[in-house]
Amino acid sequence: MSKSDDKKIGAVLVQGGGIAGVQASLDLANSGFKVYLVERDAAIGGMMAHLDKTFPTGDCATCIVSPKLVECARNLNIEIMTLSELIDLEGQPGHFKATVKRYPRYVDEVKCTGCSECTQVCPVDIPDEFNRCLGTRKGIAKLYAQATPNIFGILKNGHSPCKLKCPAKVNVQGYVQLIKQKEYLKAVELIRQRNPLSAICGRVCTHPCESECTRGKADDPITIRLLKRFASDKEMEMLEAGKLALREEKTPAPEAQKVAVIGGGPAGLTAANDLADAGFAVTVYEAMPAAGGMLRYGIPEYRLPKKVLDHEIEIIRRKGVRFVYDCRISKDITFQALRNEYDAVFVSAGAQKSRKLGVNGEQLTGVVDGVEFLRAVASHNKPVVKGTVMVVGGGDTAFDSARTALRLGAEKVIMLYRRSRAEMSATPLEIEAAEKEGVKIRYLVAPLRLNEENGKVSAIECIQMKLGEPDASGRRRPVEVEGSEFTLEVDMVISAIGQMVDEQLLGHINVKSENGRFKIDPVTGQTSVAGVFAGGDNVSGPATVIDAVAAGKRVAESIQRYLKGKDLLGGRFEDSLRPIPPAFMPTLDKVGKKSRPRAKELAPASRVGNFDEVEIGLTEEQALAEAERCLNCALCSECNRCVETCKQHAIDHAMRERTVTLDVGSVILTPGFKEFDASRKGEFGYGRHANVVTSVQFERMLSAAGPFEGHVIRLSDGREAKRIAWIQCIGSRDSTCGNEYCSSICCMMATKQAMVAVDHVDGMDATIFYMDIRAHGKDFDQYYERARAKENIHYIKSIPSRIVQLPGSRDLRVSFLDENSRLAQKEFDLIVLSVGMEPPHSMAGLAACLDIKLNQFGFCATDRLLPLSTSRPGVFVGGTAQEPKDIPETVTQASAAASMAMELLAPARNSLITKKSYPVEHDVADEEPRLGVFVCHCGMNIGSVVDVEQVVKRVEHEPNVVSATHSMFTCADTSLSNIKDMIHQHRLNRIVVASCTPRTHEPLFRETLREAGLNPNLFEMANIRDQCSWVHSAAPESATEKAVELVKMSIARARTLWPLEGGTLAVDQSGIVIGGGLSGMTAALALADQGFNVHLVEQAGRLGGTLHDIHRTFEHDDIARFANNLIEQVQKHPHIKSYLEVEITGIKGHIGKFHAILAKGDANFEISGGAIIVATGGQAAKTAEYLYGRSDRVLTQVELEKRLHEKAWPANGQNIVMIQCVGSRNERHPYCSRICCSMAVKNALAIKKLDPDANVYVLYRDVRTYGFREIYYKQAREAGVVFIRYTPEAPPQVADNNGLVVTLRSPDLREQLAIEADNVVLSTGVEVDLKNNKRISDMLKVPLNADGFYGEAHMKLRPVDFTTEGIFLCGLAHSPKFVDENIAQARAAAARAATVLSKTHLDVSAQVSYVDQQKCISCMTCVTVCPYSAPYSNKDGKGQIEAAKCMGCGICAAECPARAIQLHHFETDQFMVMIKQLFAGENGENGATTPRAAETLMEKV
Amino acid sequence: MEPIVFQPKIVAFCCHYCAYSSADLAGSMRIQYPPNVRIIRTPCTGRLETEYFMKALENGADGVLVAGCLEGGCHFVEGNLCAKRRVNYTRDLLMEIGIEKDRIRMVNVSAAMARPLADTITDMVETVRKLGTNPIKCNGSPKPENHS
Lengths: 1501, 148
Fold this sequence. Notes:
By secondary structure, chain A is of the alpha/beta class. In chain A, helix 16 crosses helix 17, helix 24 runs parallel beside helix 25 (746-760) and helix 33 runs antiparallel to helix 43. In chain B, strand 3, helix 3 and strand 4 form a beta-alpha-beta unit.
């Protein structure tokens, strides 16, 4: 391998954009790596974006996650790739080639401004997956309101069955949706894109689409044909009413290529239409005096009025199509002449000749063929009809002839059909209509001969038939019944048994034919001669109108390709169609039954003797209701409303999926989890009972931004739910569904949901059915106890056996075993199923393509001692894809995985990052303010409510305003360039943008200022959309008034802005780690492996801490070796300097530069570093309970483990009683120590393995073997370990009367229990060295919680940060946890520290507070109130603020009694000018307060 | 003639992280509320001084709304508690000088609580409408009973 090959790639791919992916990306990008954040969904945010509040702090999930998402989107070194997934990974750690599949969004991410106009016009309502189908969303939408990136996307599913079934592939769903929106003309336009004969097919189409309609499986299919007709009729009505004009007549360009179309039937008309649209010069040669073919001369007027036909032909003619009538090929013009004159020819002459009956007498007068009969009627050369008319045949022509004969005066019309009704090719509606009108149909009858009388037909001899075997057409062949002949008297016989192509034409046009029809390529429609195409009935034989249209479309596409010299075959329109995968079809179980409407018809009595149209069509009301029934199978209907609405032209329905290849050094997998499908546990009624929801649905219910805006309701009736039950462990701890593990979070989630719900709803009563309450996280148990103490939250230790929905009320009756093991029942309004976690859908595929191992449950397999490494080197994992876990552990693992990648890629740090350079800032210090004001329409979002032009007019003369303009989208690229131009042109030095919200757009505009050479702080925004036009759309005048005032306030403030410089701060790029236990050593190694020097400070005489107390885990039996390895690595590492037996006596400084004074014996020395990691650890809690210290047979779990490890445990069938929660969950230690249950299980299993005859009893309160540790709990029970529950009210008693006796009253047992124990083992939990922690927390000015553990900056999202920048924490000092969790947390702390240490200089925010030294009275209030320890007393005894520590909240400024402190960019004056401006009109134009106003308040005060 | 309804003008100070976000969300959700309120953004409600509230009233605001994060959920730990203290202090001050204390109010909302924020604004507008024009205004308009 060459040297350059060896160079590692400083980029990381993170798969999964939930909170884990976001955290890993931020840590990596902020420490010098390029990140590709690849997310399967349309926005990042993952599960956290779904949550309402978080436990145990009650923080709003959106509040805490949104800033992180926005930070991610703004980071120059994070490329967010939404709708994407990793599909292949080649190469080695340090240099991988990652292949990412990118699914289409159908919206250009660069062009989309997030204005939302598309979503407002989108007609499609589909179940909103984000809200777990509790509401609907539009086909084009953002994933959720605050989605990052803030752009829209379209959901497509393939193409609807209706469209696919349609021979012409008309976008049925699209036009049905447009009809729903009353956009009738647009609907017709959409139909005509695939079928120019919209009004015609609205009447005569055989609508194969309807038979495929998904709605038909629920109740009735949508009556698609009638909707098409309805929209088309609307168009004609508008034309007639003069509300609409046909488009101008076009003529083809003189140089246009020429196409001849033979035959002006539906196929010819369609092809002519498309080719004219494409700019060709088309001439249609028609044998008859008018165009339409069978439409005109075959279908009677009462079914298809000529007016309708003429209308649609006229539309086609106006496109520049020339018609030559009465021109028969071979007779009037030769085919060769056409070939010579035209560049291409389309033969669509139809099948005009009737088939003969083939019986004697066919030539008699009074015998006509159907085609001719109908043609004569249409040509106003009406035949005389009277007496009895016999029609032979069962197709459309037969029925049309029969019904026409009736109208022409026949007394009796009888149809003879040789098969049964089921085999008829006419539609049932047609048959019904004929029967209604009086036509008699005789089935299974065939004519034998026609008899003559007076030279004219007089009777027909027939024979009865029966059905035999199916023939080639699949229909059963009719067979004569011998001896069943009979005769009927007739006056006229119309034979309509089929049509064929004119043989003469076939002969004249010298292309290949087959079975009396032209032979073509089935895909292209080309005949055996290049440039000659054929389609319609002369290829297929008699077929439907829509088949002919489809043929015309196909040939039109081919002719265009042919004439442009393109391949005729590849990439044709049909190839772009794909069916919807069955799994994605709409579910029908929630579809309310509603039948289709029937069109009004002319009464049968008034049909005779005229040709008035029989079917009258739908009313508007019917049509709208019918369109509403469409299920939108394909999701997006491709109606193109969004396309025409989007002013940014950002929408592209033709986008296709693509793959990209990325060079990355490492991969981090954070794909998250999927919730268990509750319908798999049928007994709980999810999906069957309306008021059973999942915990995630309930979360959406609680969310103020959710589908019910935070109202807790019953889905059945919308009533507020007052009695709610939670059922735990749905899909967890359950071998029947294969999920034997515990999902870890559900107990707390249910507890939180109950807490929030009882707050939301007055008189709420919450019941939680549980197995064990697993509140093992930091401060969780205290939260659980608070919930338990509430009167209206009840915990019942039982999992219900079944749920019954009560008829009528839809209340739910739950049966369960109560505390006394008796069957009890309780009724509820709503039941929440606490669904567990499963591996994400993508996990198996991901594992296969990355070649990584999964565990037995499908989660990513890892080792407890290497918790972040997958089986493939260089690929790391974090979060719930590794094991179910809560947010803090997820975030911790994400940072830790980032650390793993950093360690691997350390040499490549900073090699691929982008740093933007800007022009030198223009000095504005001596200039008068020159303001540019830019007011945004945001398409219609602002413009349709606020009079934007008036706003501009009313602010343009404000003092200092040099220019005031408006634009459609101020944030569009061209507008931003315009702002830069204006800055230069008008020497603008303050910019005001009035548009949306600074939360999303301020960074963009500030960036524009920097690019134009202005300091970014010279910018101000007025929010006239989110906080004005959107919320006052009903009051446009007031909204305009408000907008004017808001802009004026911003102008006033902008005048007072001045440039701010943040400054930088040099970083001491070495780390200080306090504590040399497992966590401290791991953190030190993680930093040192990245190349940073580390000072590792340990007060004991050796490294290792409590790691020496651990001898084995469930999976590893030699922790000592692991510990020794670790210690050796630390000791040998060139970048680590360990200090043993030292005490820290003082810490000074701030992020980037800390100094610590160490004392060793009498000597003092100083170390320094840019970041500090606190890993001071914990210890096994001491106890004096249960005779501990008084009987040598009472020992702790740690002592037991040591004895077991040292093989100093007798295998003689002892009785051992373990007592849990000895040092935990009590008054002294109100927290849960998290590890003791698993430790007891581990040691109990070890005893049983050593001595199967031993009896082990574990006395517990809740068994908290969370995650995969649950498996060992199960193993222990299977091994015979006895678990007995106790309550804190009746704890076990241990007495020593010549032997230990443990007595206990368990709530699960009737009798009191007494166990003679050889040994009693106490699970004493974990505690901290309170004194030491107090000392260090005082020095670092970081908080401790009530239990003496350090308090992190934020429980959920900043689990290893302190509020003070540059200081991090990990390990037992944070809270009790296991080895793997400590390793992850230590690495997380290292990753966080690396975001500081990787930089030579840190940027210090410009928006910080500063002290006016003259005004300061040295009271040091600022020092007391600042949450970040930024203010300090300087050498003059005055307050001063360390900018590096200041977070810019301004609390000190507000608290300062001498008003000596100001916050840059939010100065008192800057607030005041806005207030004054707001009331300027009332207090004089200059905005100054009047003397009277000024005196009032202050005097009175 | 239609009776003229008194249109109070209310200044709302919203913290960037929660209240301002939820005001934006109200927009996304198209929740309608009366257009009588003008929002001024502040990094944290803890930045706001009593003087701002008093100046707003003195300049002619009929009401002042201070909207911060939920208690316990402040982005800057407990800036909203400082604000609460100052709002309460301002209410006492107003009482002392004979002005209705309900002209100023503090509300705590999360970034997702668009509806509660809009409801509070609506309620505040109604409350202040009932109280009538801010009596400090130099050209004080009459009390609402004269309007109806």
